[in-house]
């Protein structure tokens, strides 16, 4: 079992490195630059955000986060998930362990709906989210145009996924 813990500023270099690996594939996000501590903290550590790190042998092997989708009270239980696993740890079950723990933590903190927006080419991420209870809602066609990397200038579709908490209404 991997040790899971919250992030702190000292983890910033590892978070940035793992994030940059994902961005380099061109199939992780529309963001052009990897998170530094300031952007990571703003997205996942402030307000109702959540972050988890997966530690392997004392080193950060992956990270996951939930960021609120809106500041409006009616949506305070809706968040968007992000998950990144280092190249050398992919395909070993770490992502599943990390995402399931994140879902559990999010539900404990009052989230009832989690969404994920994933490029259709990112088959591993789509499979991971489905294995963790996320359902495909549909495809947002030509949602945005890539501004960096191997797909710069190309319009990209995004698969919208959602996981509803079994705790709704309890």
From TrEMBL:
Keywords: Acyltransferase, Plasmid, Transferase. This is L-methionine sulfoximine/L-methionine sulfone acetyltransferase. Signal peptide: none annotated. The keyword Magnesium does not apply. Its EC number is 2.3.1.-. InterPro entries: Acyl_CoA_acyltransferase, GNAT_dom. Residues 2-165 form the N-acetyltransferase domain. SUPFAM superfamilies: Acyl-CoA N-acyltransferases (Nat). GO terms for molecular function: acyltransferase activity. It comes from the Bacteria.
């Amino acid at each position: 079992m991997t040790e899971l813990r919250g992030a702190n500023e000292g983890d910033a270099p590892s978070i940035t490195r793992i994030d940059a690996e994902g961005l380099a594939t061109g199939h992780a996000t529309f963001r052009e630059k990897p998170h530094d501590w300031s952007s990571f903290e703003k997205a996942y550590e402030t307000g109702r955000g959540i972050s988890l790190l997966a530690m392997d042998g004392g080193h950060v092997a992956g990270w996951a986060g939930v960021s609120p989708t809106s500041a409006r009270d009616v949506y305070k239980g809706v968040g968007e998930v992000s998950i990144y696993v280092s190249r050398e740890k992919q395909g070993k079950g770490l992502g599943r362990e990390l995402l399931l723990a994140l879902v559990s933590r999010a539900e404990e903190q009052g989230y009832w709906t989690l969404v994920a927006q994933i490029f259709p080419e990112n088959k591993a991420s789509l499979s991971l989210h489905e294995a963790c209870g996320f359902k495909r809602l549909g495809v947002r066609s030509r949602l945005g145009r890539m501004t960096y990397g191997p797909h710069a200038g190309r319009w990209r579709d995004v698969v919208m996924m959602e996981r509803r908490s079994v705790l709704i209404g309890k």
